[in-house]
UniProtKB/TrEMBL annotation:
Pfam families: Beta-lactamase. Residues 1-24 form the signal peptide. The keyword Signal applies. It comes from Noviluteimonas lactosilytica. Keywords: Signal. SUPFAM superfamilies: beta-lactamase/transpeptidase-like. Gene3D superfamilies: DD-peptidase/beta-lactamase superfamily. InterPro entries: AmpC-like, Beta-lactam-related, Beta-lactam/transpept-like. This is Beta-lactamase family protein. The keyword Signal applies. It comes from the Bacteria.
Length: 399
């Protein structure tokens, strides 16, 4: 999700070993390499999964979910996943679009008890498509947004209350600086609060809280048994401790909730998120369960920025987006990542969707130390490519 990645601490031994080189020409196995990066980066726990051709091909946990109690980090360990949560909010939004209950291009005010207007462009509507492509002009004013985090439990402030105070002139958190100085649709400004607003609109239109709605249409149908939004609704015994690092020490931090929970509040496991990811990569269905139609998924995942229609501050060689769907690594991979205190996560696929990787870490890193997490992701990604190449070679041999 949002602000800077922070660091963590010591790590432990791994589980099982596979004898596959991380990179051609080296003798290191994937497990040994991940262990090395965790130790050098002082990362407490890591979970990872590889998807090949829309199916989970490999998954594993490393290190600890709780160092003090010696609890291992496994593919079933739960933790909050930061901004990957926006993709869940996106699926909920697109389900309502599919059912004809929402339009991506209508004024969001049609579904709100208050108006959302950039005071510098009061006659310009703001749409869900703009929000989901981060071109709405809604900004995250940091001195306000940081107060959306509540340490020690779920946030007591309701989503609607926070948003109304932010968007209504005269509200406790209103300011013209809650918007960028650009006409809606013309400038890219990544907005967590905008995603919170999209989730609130889902609630208003569906008649259900986002957590209940996504449980009904996504989590339960896909068999995501270890997934939820609020600490009050999950098995805390399965939830990882979160860590930050300071001065080479691993410091556990309290779990926390968010007033703007649709932008980053999902708590899930690598195993569960892999099912969700596979559903998207398979055109909206997984293991016989359809969540979205193929046409709806295509609209959610297609790149929206074009030469004729792109924000004024975007280089298409470096960035493109779907609806709550992001490119990464200079538009060579797509999906979403997340970063929060004690959280570093990625859910990324190749552009053709043939390989996908999910990586969780319960330890946030900062500065140059983020390279250790990046190295782990790169190693898992390389293994995913090797696995698919091997599968392709075997298929060729069988013909």
């Amino acid at each position: 999700m949002r602000y800077g990645n922070v660091l963590s601490v010591f790590v432990a031994m791994l589980a099982f070993a596979i004898a596959t080189p991380v990179r051609a020409g080296t003798q290191e196995t994937l497990d040994a390499y991940i262990a090395q990066q965790m130790e050098e980066g002082a990362i407490a726990g890591v979970g990872a999964a590889i998807l090949v051709d829309g199916k989970v091909a490999w998954t594993k946990g490393y290190g600890h979910a709780d160092i003090a109690r010696g609890v291992p980090f496994t593919p079933d360990t739960m933790m909050n996943i930061g901004s990957i949560s926006k993709t869940v909010t996106g699926v909920a939004m697109m389900r309502l679009v599919q059912e004809g209950k929402l339009s991506l291009d209508e004024d969001v005010d049609a579904h709100l008890p208050f108006k959302v207007r950039n005071p510098r462009f009061p006659d310009e509507k703001i749409t869900l498509r703009q929000i989901a492509t981060h071109t709405s002009g809604i900004a995250d004013r940091w001195d306000v947004y940081k107060r959306a985090y509540h340490y020690g439990g779920d946030a007591p402030e309701a989503l609607g209350t926070f948003l109304e105070s932010y968007f209504v002139p005269g509200g406790a958190n209103w300011s013209a600086d809650n918007f960028v100085d650009a006409k809606p649709g013309t400038h890219r400004e990544y907005s967590n609060i905008g995603a919170g607003l999209a989730g609130y609109i889902v609630e208003r239109v569906s008649g259900e809280k986002l957590d209940a709605y996504t449980k009904r249409i996504v989590f339960e149908p896909l068999g995501m048994q270890h997934t939820g939004w609020f600490l009050a609704d999950i098995d805390r015994a399965r939830h990882s401790t979160l860590y930050v690092s300071q001065g080479g020490m691993t410091i556990p931090i309290p779990l926390y909730g968010l007033s703007t929970y649709p932008d980053g509040g999902v708590r899930t496991s690598v195993a569960d998120l892999s099912r969700f990811f596979a559903m998207l990569l398979n055109g909206g269905a997984y293991e016989g369960v359809r969540v979205l139609d193929q046409k709806t998924v295509d609209e959610m995942l297609r790149f929206h920025y074009t030469k004729a229609n792109k924000p004024d501050n975007v280089d298409l060689a470096e960035k493109n987006v779907g609806l709550f769907w992001q490119s990464k690594y200079n538009v060579t991979r797509v999906g979403h990542g997340g970063s929060d205190p004690g959280v570093m996560t990625d859910m990324l696929a190749s552009l053709d969707g043939k390989i996908g990787v999910v990586v969780f870490s319960n330890t946030s890193l900062s500065g140059e130390d983020t390279k250790y997490y990046a190295n782990i992701f790169k190693a898992v990604w390389e293994e995913a490519g090797r696995m698919r190449a091997e599968r392709g070679a075997k298929a060729g041999d069988s013909r």
